[in-house]
Amino acid sequence: MKSKRNVVAAALLGAMLLAVPVAASAASATIAVESKPIVMEFDGKKLALPSGQVAFMYQSKVYIPLRFASYALQKQVGYDVKSKMVTVTEPTSSQLVALKEYLANATASSGQVATTAKVKLVPTAVKLVFDGVEKKLPVGQQAFNVNGSIYVPVRFFAEAVGTTVLWDAKTGTVLGESKAYREAQSNGGSTNEGSASGGGTEGKAGSGSNGSSSGGETAKLSYDSITASAKSQLETLETSCGSDLLSLALQYYAAPTAERQAELKEKGVNKLNACKAQFESILSDTENKLTTNGYSTEILTEYRKAFEEKIEAGKAQFKQSQ
Question: How many Cβ atoms sit within 10 Å of the Cβ of residue 77?
Answer without folding.
Answer: 18
